[in-house]
Amino acid sequence: MPFPSQRPRRLRRTSGLRRMVRETLVSPADLIDPLFVVEGSGIHEEISSMPGVFRASIDRLGREVDAVLQAGIPAVILFGVPESKDGVGSGAYAEDGIVQQAVRWIKQRAPELTVITDLCLCEYTDHGHCGVIAGDTVDNDATLELLARTALSQAAAGADMIAPSDMMDGRIGRVREALDEGGFSDRAIMSYAVKYASAFYGPFRDAAESAPAFGDRRAYQMDPANRREALKEAALDIEEGADIVMVKPALPYLDVLREVRDYFGDLPIAAYQVSGEYAMIQAAARNGWVDGTRVMVESLTAIKRAGADLILTYFARQFAALAPEQRGA
Ligand code: PBG
Questions:
Q1: Which one of 65, 181, 288, 328 has the largest count of C-beta atoms within 10 Å of its C-beta?
Q2: How far apart are CA 299 and CA 273, in angstroms?
Q3: Counting Cβ atoms within 10 Å, is residue 144 exposed (0-12), middle (13-18) or buried (19+)?
């Protein structure tokens, strides 16, 4: 029955009514906090293009981990920044590699914190690509073996969940097989299944020193123009054994996120609000051009509304620190 009997404004009249009919609420329990761990000691430096986000050496990691625990955030995802790199990214699978050391350290200090390890070679290769190079391309199948080895070493260090972000074909199956054979059939895989070749990763590549030295990642990451391909990538990774699939970036790809959510009803979907998304909001807020807190809440709410069960975001702690009513609760 239309106007005048239907008046949707009735349920928007007071904040109490709006709270009662609010459909989507982001909770700190939905969030995963990315941490950058650098080799060396005494390092705790802010990333210039990502204000509020730090790179820390293990001896200075305590502050970061305590803040995550205090905020009630259940999980971190670790990115390693090694001192030296080589052609095959051997720092990624070294037993005393930076991520392996960090996992052991965190698990000792905070066993209840879920530790996810990003699995990729780009932070460890001197050419900055996500796999080993053959001619002018990344050799898919040779890379799989190094990824399997890296995943095993991360699991052995105590990682609860492995998150392959390299976009090689067949990596989920190969990593699952390696984990199972190595006695880690209990460790989960969160696949960066739908990962676009995006310009929004710029600040991350500064932070992780992982920009490719030549070319770009378009021969393995997805074309931003493609939607059907997202369903194909997610389907393959689920078939190969992924426990959670991710869409990345988040805000520019909410249509894709919604579709993946609707299509794959039976497993959790994650979305990554990436470094460029974070940097843009922070830059505008610092200029006084937008209300940073409100844009943060609105963007995270939109990502959840579009279908994300889990959100990887550099805002995790800032969001969790808000009063419940600022988050709409
Ligand atoms: C590693 C990796 C990247 C990100 C997460 N894992 C960079 C890339 O693919 O170039 C991006 C995260 C961000 O921008 O916040 N492959």
A1: 65
A2: 9
A3: buried
The model's pLDDT over 54-110, given as tens digits with 9 standing for 90+, comes to 999 999 999 999 999 999 999 999 999 999 999 999 999 999 999 999 999 999 999
Instruction: Confirm or reject: Cβ of 273 under 6 Å from ligand 1.
Output: no
- Count Cα neighbours of 51 within 13 Å in the Cβ-side half-sphere: 9
Structure tokens that stand for 102 in this block: 């960090």
CB 146 within 8 A of CB 86: no
- C-alpha 305/C-alpha 314 separation (Å) is 19
Please name each of the domains of the chain with its CATH number: 8-327 (3.20.20.70)
Residue 130 near ligand 1, beta carbon < 6 Å? yes
Q: How far apart are CA 177 and CA 142, in angstroms?
A: 16
Q: Decide whether any atom of ligand 1 lies within 6 Å of the 220 Cβ.
A: no
Residue range 254-277, pLDDT digits in tens? 999 999 999 998 999 999 999 999
Segment 273-309, tens digit of pLDDT: 999 999 999 999 999 999 999 999 999 999 999 999 9
- Tell me the sheet residues that pair with 188: 161
Task: Write down the pTM of the prediction.
Answer: 0.97
Q: What is the 205 CA–ligand 1 centroid distance (Å)?
A: 7
What is the DSSP track for 176-201?
Answer: HHHHHHTT-TTSEEEEEEEEB--GGG
- Are 42 and 57 spatial neighbours (Cβ–Cβ below 8 Å)? yes
The residue behind tokens 């990333």 is: 47
Q: Which residue owns the Cα nearest ligand 1 atom 2?
A: 165
How many residues make up the chain in this entry? 329
Pairing of strands 133-134, 188-195: unpaired
